Each structure stands twice: as C-alpha cells, then as structure tokens.
Amino acid sequence: MPDIVRKGTEEMKKRKNIVRRDRVLVHEALLEVQNLIEDLPLQRDMLIEYLHRIQDKHHQLSDQHLLALATIMKISQAEVYEVASFYHHFDIVKAGEDSPAELTVRVCDSVSCEMAGSVALISKLKDIVGDDVRIQPVPCVGRCESAPVVVVGKKPILQATAEDVMTDVNAKNTEDVAPADAIRYDAYVADGGYELYKQVMAGNKPHEELFTTLEDSNLRGLGGAGFPVGRKWRIVNGQAAPRMMAINIDEGEPGTFKDRVYLERDPHRFLEGMLIAAEVVGTAEIYIYLRDEYPGIQILLEEELVILREKFPEAPPMQLRRGAGAYICGEESAMVESIEGKRGMPRLRPPYLAEVGLFGRPTLEHNMESLYWVRDLVEKGADWFTSQGRNGRKGMRSFSVSGRVNKPGVHLAPAGITLRELVDEYCGGILDGKELYGYFPGGASGGILPASKADIPLDFDTLNEHGCFIGSAAVIVLSEVDSIRDVAINAMKFFEHESCGQCTPCRVGTSKAVKLMQQGEWDTDLMAELSTVMMDASICGLGQAAPNPMNSVITYFPNELKQSKSGGVSS
Ligand SMILES: Cc1cc2nc3c(=O)[nH]c(=O)nc-3n(C[C@H](O)[C@H](O)[C@H](O)COP(=O)(O)O)c2cc1C
Ligand code: SF4
Ligand code: FES
User: Is pLDDT of 16 > 80?
Assistant: First the structure.
C-alpha cells in the first residue's frame, strides 16, 4: 500500500474512532439538550436561544452538547460552533478543558465604571472570592449612572463595593427581577393607553395622518444614526409584502442606558408605538432583540407580551430574542443576522434592510426609543415636539449622563442644549465642586470634546465639524481629576474587544491603535494614517468610528500626548 494511502487510511480510522466515541457520549447529551429545548419550535433561527438554554443550565457549552445540538438541528457541528464561539456570554469547554467556575461575577470596566474605581474593585474581588467564583471584567452593562456596576450571576449591583458583592455571592442571590415600578398593562390602559392603537386599528386614524405627523415632527431615529423615522416608515411601507419589523434594544454603546430606563418605567408606551408602527407600515411579524444584560426587563417584557397577545389577537406575532453579549449586534444588519441565529456580522450594503432585511424580507428596523415617542407625538401633535429645542435646534433628546456630575441619569432635555447647560440645569453641576475637563458627547464612539467646547449645541449634525457625533446621546462627563488619554485607551480597548473581525482595517486597526496609544509618546503621524484607513475602509460604523477618541486626544488634548495626566484613571 503506498505510504500516502496508508497514512490516509489510518487517519480515517482515527477519525471514525473519534466520531464513534463522541456518538456514544452524545447519547446522554442528546437527551439533555432535547429536554432543555423541547418547548421551543425546532427552527434554524432559534440556535442562539437553544445555546442560552444549555449555558443557563450547565454554565458552559461542552463539545458533546454542541454536537448534540447539531444532530438535533441537522446542521454541521462547525455551524453550531462558529455561532456559539462568536458571543461572549457562551463558555465553550472542549474535552479535557476545565469547566468555568459555577458562578460568574461580571465587573464592568468601561469608561464610567473605570472612572468610578472598577479596576481596584476587580483586583480586590479576585483576592477575596473562592475558586467557585469567576471574576470577569466586561464591557458596559448599561447602568453607567450607578457606576461601578457588578453583576452577580444575573443580579446587578449598583455602586458596588466588594462587601456588597460578597454578600450576594455568599447568599447565592444571583437572579434579577422585573423592575418593580414599571407601569403594567392595566395601569397603562387606565391612563388612556392603547386608545390610539385601537383607533388606528378601527380605521379612525388614517395611516396617512400618522405618516405626516411623524414627518412634520422630524423625529429622527434614536439608535444613533438619526435617520428620519417618518421617511423610514414610508420607504418600508412601499416595499413588497411580507414586511418584517426588528426592534433594537441591544444598547451596548458604553455610556448609554436610556432604553433600559424607559423600559423600567413605561414599557407599554414603547409596545403601543411598536404595534402602531406594525399596523401603519404593515409588518407581518415583529422581533424584539434585547441585550442579555437586561434579564429583569426580559422577564417584564415576556410577561407583558403574553397579555398583549391575548388582548390584541389581531396584532402580528411578536417574538422576544435575547442577545448574548456582543456589542456589534446593535448594528442593525448584525442584529438581523443574530435574530436569524447566526454570528452577528454586519452585512455589506446595499441592499439596505428596508429592502432586504430579516429573513430576506423588507424590514423596519428601529431603536426602541424611536417607537416610544410615537403615541405622544400623535396625541400631542408634531408642534408639541418641534416647539421644544434650544440654540436653533428642534425637538427633545434623552441624554444618558454619567461620570463626574452630581445627578447622573437619563435627562430628557431640549435638542441643541449645550453640555454646560445640561450639566448645570439637569445634572446638579460637576461632582465635588471640580472643574469640567472634557466630555464624550455620544458614548465611546462619538469622540471626546474639551471644556472649551462645552457651549456648542448637542444634536445630530452639530458636532461633525468638531470631529464628534451625538449618536445615542450618551454623555460621559470628565473633570480635572481624569486623564483623557486613559479614557480614550479604555474606549479603544473596548472596540478591539468588540470588533467582529470581519474586516482587516477594524480587526487589526483597533488592536494596533491600542498598542500605539499605550506607548509613552504618541506617534501622531502613524496614528493619523491608521485612522484614515480605519475610517475609509471599515465595513461598518464600529471600525469607522473607533479612531474618534484617539483623534480627539490628538486634536484637543495635546498636553496628554507625551504621558498620562497624573491623577487620571489607570490605563
Ligand atoms: C457598532 C454599532 C452599534 C450600534 N448599536 C446600537 C444599539 O445598541 N441600539 C440601537 O438602537 N442602534 C444601534 N446602532 C445603530 C443601528 O445600526 C441603527 O442605525 C438603529 O438601530 C436604527 O434605528 P433608529 O432609526 O430607530 O435609530 C449601532 C450602530 C453601530 C454601527
Ligand atoms: S468594521 Fe469591525 S465590527 Fe464592523 S464589520 Fe468590520 S470588523 Fe466587523
Ligand atoms: S455600566 Fe459601566 S460603563 Fe456603563
């Protein structure tokens, strides 16, 4: 037998053995997985939901469970693996590897939490927890107004201390609960809720009137890109049926927490807006994509959706899908991929989602807050909205404010308000009587502005000439105690961690940028070249915006180019 054939035959025998051994083991795993997902429909797009069930139960995804899932779904093991390995909340454990600790304690180390001491907290916790607890630094968990934030299992701890964390760890308090103060269905209806939806359904509110109201209000999408809502409705409405709706509650931009706050207070205001949009635009199905970091809201929405399906049987089918810890899944096309049960990798456009979106159908994709305002806009009229605003701008914006202010939180303020006005009038001034040093106007990706630019109007389009953007209006305020260079490094590390890896300018660029930014003296010429490549050649907004914080340091904080300002947060 020729050597090459003999080697091949031996390899085949080895593989057969592997397969046979796996098959024996998988029988038990097969039953376990079958039991875990038996109440769910068997569909390819449900893959991530199945993975959640396994992860929740076993705190890990073993080879055998992945193989069992592939067998049940009749897809390749590679397909299951590539999806599972994409998402940070899944722990794949290969044969022979150690299992992760029974309990995971996630400590947010994004900008606002790092400014509030998360680095020291992480190291303290690592020293005091036992082997059965894993301390995991994680990006923003959407509660930046209460930094530093720790999540024990699924239970968030606000303004966390090591003592608070250990109390919950020791008591095994690991579950979140639905927000206690949320306005539930009955209370919402008692206050006139769903009257507008009923009128729309009964034909008493012509669709054209709603299109016009939204257009006249000039409400712009509140997920970051600011595309006019009314125009989007018309475009999708003009596409061939069946049309879909996908709602974005991924809220992963560090500094952003407005969607969570609105859902914790008044979930039906959003749900009514969603149903009205579905009726007016004529969508056949609705998918709500919720970040995995909001388990209490998941409970709330699941409970309220049961009621809605019963009260409004004529409404389109509504499905709630859980993300799995990947910031990029907030990018609309990545989110659609994730809802389809795939890796959350952004699509190349065109075609746009309005033409070819979820399951290949024209899709109305919206940030949750864009729909939250629909009822108020229609009931109070477009003028109510456009009559608000400052410094020549119109409308209102929900600012998620965190960092060095006395009253962090979501502040609904006139569009066009300046940072100085926002801090003084809504946030009780700068913390500890310190001076303003700079601010992120639009989360980690929107760049950083110096105190000298605290008097420019904050709105869509107004910050472009300053190399920044407002995005989802996540304002992080920095005072003289902070180092801009260090927070910029924090932001770049976040992008490096969250890059989906699909395109080289972003995958390699973010990693290279972190290394350059960590050098004593910054090589600004090289950084400028790198920044141009990333901005011009990245596929999606993550890679295109990632250089913003780095460029802001170079443009506005030349005093920090040689070394980190003393007293700043650590890098
Ligand atoms: C990297 C990246 C992350 C994003 N994350 C979110 C998000 O968490 N939530 C969101 O609504 N939009 C997010 N967006 C914007 C969406 O792609 C999209 O523009 C938005 O959901 C559209 O809805 P709207 O028109 O209602 O604003 C993100 C965009 C990028 C490039
Ligand atoms: S820019 Fe980054 S996140 Fe976007 S597709 Fe490319 S690698 Fe993925
Ligand atoms: S919760 Fe920590 S930065 Fe947002």
Answer: no
**Which residue out of 349, 495, 502 has the highest number of ligand 2 atoms within 8 Å of its CB and is therefore the one to mutate?**
502
From 86, 250, 253, 328, the mutation candidate for ligand 2 (largest count of ligand atoms within 8 A of CB) is 328
The average pLDDT across 277-303 equals 98
CATH number of the domain at 276, please.
3.40.50.11540
Does position 5 have pLDDT exceeding 90, yes or no? no
Say which ligand is closest to the CA of 118.
3
Helix ranges (DSSP H) in 130-194: 162-171, 185-190
208 within 8 A of 280, measured Cβ to Cβ: no
Answer yes or no: is pLDDT of 108 > 80.
Answer: yes
**Nearest CA residue ID for atom 19, ligand 1:** 225
Mutate to test the pocket of ligand 1, among 256, 367, 548 (most ligand atoms within 8 A of CB): 367
113 pocket-lining for ligand 3 (C-beta < 6 Å): yes
* 82 and 121, same domain (yes or no): no
156 lines ligand 3 (CB under 6 A): no
Please report where in the chains the tokens 């579905």 appear, as a residue. Answer: 278
pTM of the model: 0.94
367 in the same domain as 251: yes
Q: What burial letters (b/e) apply to 194-214, b meaning 16+ CB within 10 Å? A: bebbeebbeeebebeebbebb
Say if CB 154 and CB 174 are below 8 A apart. yes
Q: Minimum mean pLDDT among 94-108, 253-267, 361-375: which range?
A: 94-108
Mean pLDDT along residues 83-111:
96
Atom of ligand 1 lying closest to residue 371 CA: 26
Q: Assess whether 129 and 80 both reside in one domain.
A: no
In a domain, 571, yes or no: no
Return the amino acid letter for 308: L
Mean pLDDT, the chain, whole residue set: 94
- Round to whole Å and give the CA distance between 263 and 372: 9
Give yes or no for residue 51 having a pLDDT over 90.
Answer: yes
Mean local confidence (pLDDT), 495-523: 97
Question: Phi first, then psi: what are they for 84, rounded to 5°?
Answer: -60, -40
Nearest ligand to the CA atom of 569:
3
Query: Do the domain assignments include residue 180?
Result: no
List pLDDT tens digits, range 26-46: 789 999 999 999 999 999 999
Of the three residues 93, 128, 146, the one that is the final residue of a domain is 93
Spatial distance between the Cα atoms of 152 and 146, rounded to a whole number of angstroms: 15
Looking at the structure, tell me whether residues 336 and 223 fall in a common domain: yes
Atom number of ligand 2 nearest to Cα 507: 7
**Which ligand places an atom closest to the C-alpha of 357?**
1
